[in-house]
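Worked problem 6 (solution included).
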Amino acid sequence: QVQLVESGGGLVQAGGSLRLSCAASGRTSSSYAMGWFRQAPGKEREFVAAISWSGGSTYYADSVKGRFTISRDNAKNTVYLQMNSLEPEDTAVYYCAASLRRISIATLTPTWFDYWGQGTQVTVSS
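Solution. The predicted structure is:
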């Protein structure tokens, strides 16, 4: 089992920045790909960004490409999501997720990920 705890959410004005963190505990000796997803009220959970175990491969949704950056520090069992140039449309609950399987462009869906955090609210005001 892996426990994931997100932090760093909050209220920010449009154009501002936030950095989300996701700390993993438990069975962290295994290799996990990590991802961030978000869910706005009345909408389905959607993919935001993902990173391979080594950090050598990263993936982004088109809507955040060039504005968000995912990174990880395996020594700290932590993954980050740096969010710049935030827009009101980025308002959502952001979830961290871990996958036991190798990720690819074809597997960036919630069902590919095995463990989930509780989420952190990000609100962007206009």
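Discussion: The longest strand covers residues 18-26.
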